[in-house]
Specification:
Radius of gyration: 19 Å
Strand order of the largest sheet: 1-2
Number of strands: 4
Distance between the termini: 35 Å
Low-confidence stretches: 38-44, 47-55
Helix content: 25-40%
Strand content: 5-15%
Shape: globular
Length: 137
């Protein structure tokens, strides 16, 4: 992927504003991790900051999102192995109440619709990447 393609993709995500999607604030590259591979270029969300990098170290992409304190993932809330250990006879987590399940489904579907309507794709829909920021939110 060229740096210009990457720049335009990050810009689309930065412009995405929806209550069910965590907002991307900034994306930048760094060589601070000292990876020893080759990397052709660097990019930033600001076109004026677009700079060609040296090829000696890999340029890592850093993405900065909104911070939601005290949030947990859907996986931590409902699929946590510790929770299953508290009920030794169960081989699976306790069922999610139907009302709560429908709330999750509606919010996830709204997020997917907003992302697809913006001309983007969602590849990483996984309980470990969905956060709960408040009561059933």
């Amino acid at each position: 992927m060229s740096s210009q393609e990457a720049f335009s993709a990050m810009e689309k995500w930065r412009q995405m504003k929806h209550p069910n999607v965590v907002s991307l604030r900034e994306a930048f590259t760094t060589k601070a991790f000292n990876d020893n591979c080759t990397s052709p270029q660097s990019f930033s969300l600001s076109p004026s900051r677009h700079i060609a990098e040296e090829r000696s170290l890999t340029t890592a992409l850093m993405m900065v999102y909104d911070f939601h304190p005290n949030s947990i993932t859907l996986e931590e809330e409902h699929l946590n192995p510790e929770m299953m250990a508290m009920t030794p006879r169960r081989k699976s987590p306790p069922p999610i109440p139907e009302r709560l399940l429908w709330s999750y489904i509606t919010q996830i579907a709204n997020a997917i619709k907003a992302i697809h309507s913006s001309g983007m794709a969602l590849r990483g829909l996984d309980p470990s990447r969905i956060i709960l920021t408040g009561k059933n939110r």
